[in-house]
């Protein structure tokens, strides 16, 4: 298991260094096989005693707060930033981290806000003193997809892995339970 660049999942699949890729991939070459697993939504997370919980929650408050952003690429922005930019707004990214693993611990101890996918947020809220808030602006849903290279179609081990991932995810569509 390893992290991939969302913008280029085909590179390790083509090279044979990865057997399957699982996640949100906005652009995928037609040569790769794919299977839709479920659709995800976004939510905001803050610590459970964050001052924003005692104020009105709106877009103005959202852009005023310091944000945590998850990215492995320096200077990158996300869908939230693109949507805000269309409205002539921007948010203040106070901290960028490369992995989701540290996110809940940072949020639980700071006044930062993070926008993450809902299933990850649900898990974090169950485990730590965090609260989930609906995004104060419409954010698109996004598909979670399984990708693999056609050369692995005949490999029984990889076929088993794909079937297992599809089975695990089969109940997720339309539900709020985490993976």
Write a structural description.
The protein is of the alpha/beta class and 179 residues long. The chain has two domains: 10-40 and 144-169, Periplasmic binding protein-like II (D-Maltodextrin-Binding Protein, domain 2, 3-Layer(aba) Sandwich); 42-133, D-Maltodextrin-Binding Protein, domain 2 (3-Layer(aba) Sandwich). It has six helices and eight strands, in the order H-E-E-E-H-E-H-E-H-E-H-E-E-H. The chain has helices at 10-15, 59-64, 79-86, 103-109, 118-127, 156-169; strands at 20-23, 33-40, 42-47, 66-70, 92-97, 113-117, 130-133, 142-148. The strands form two sheets. Strands 5-4-6-3-7 form a five-stranded mixed beta sheet. A three-stranded antiparallel beta sheet has the order 1-8-2, with helices on one face. Helix 3 links the parallel strand 4 and strand 5 (92-97). The radius of gyration is 18 Å and the shape is elongated. The two termini are 16 Å apart. The mean pLDDT is 89.
> Helix segment count?
6
Order of helices and strands: HEEEHEHEHEHEEH
Structural class: alpha/beta
Q: Please, what is the average pLDDT?
A: 89
Q: Whole-number radius of gyration?
A: 18 Å
The CATH architecture of the largest domain comes to 3-Layer(aba) Sandwich
What percent of the residues sit in helical stretches (DSSP H or I)? 25-40%
CATH superfamily of the largest domain: Periplasmic binding protein-like II
Task: Give the tally of structural domains.
Answer: 2
Q: Number of DSSP strands? A: 8
Oligomer: single chain
Distance between the termini: 16 Å
Q: Spatial order of the strands in the main sheet?
A: 5-4-6-3-7
CATH topology of the largest domain: D-Maltodextrin-Binding Protein, domain 2
pLDDT < 50 stretches: none
Q: How much strand?
A: 25-35%
Output the CATH class name of the largest domain.
Alpha Beta
Largest beta sheet, briefly? Answer: 5 strands, mixed
* Shape estimate: elongated
């Amino acid at each position: 298991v390893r992290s991939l660049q969302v913008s280029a999942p085909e590179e390790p699949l083509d090279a044979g260094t990865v057997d399957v890729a699982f996640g949100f991939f906005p652009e995928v070459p037609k040569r790769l096989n794919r299977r839709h697993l479920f659709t995800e939504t976004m939510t905001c997370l803050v610590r459970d005693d964050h001052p924003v919980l005692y104020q009105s929650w709106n877009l103005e408050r959202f852009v005023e707060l310091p944000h945590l952003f998850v990215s492995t690429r320096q200077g990158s922005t996300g869908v939230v930033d693109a949507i805000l930019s269309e409205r002539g707004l921007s948010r203040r990214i106070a901290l960028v981290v490369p992995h989701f693993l540290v996110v809940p611990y940072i949020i639980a101890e700071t006044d930062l806000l993070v926008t993450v996918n809902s299933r990850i947020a649900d898990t974090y809220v169950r485990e730590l003193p965090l609260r989930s808030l609906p995004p104060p602006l419409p954010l698109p849903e996004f598909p979670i997809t399984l990708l693999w290279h056609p050369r692995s179609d005949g490999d029984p081990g990889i076929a088993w892995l794909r079937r297992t991932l599809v089975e695990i995810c089969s109940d997720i569509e339309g539900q709020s339970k985490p993976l």
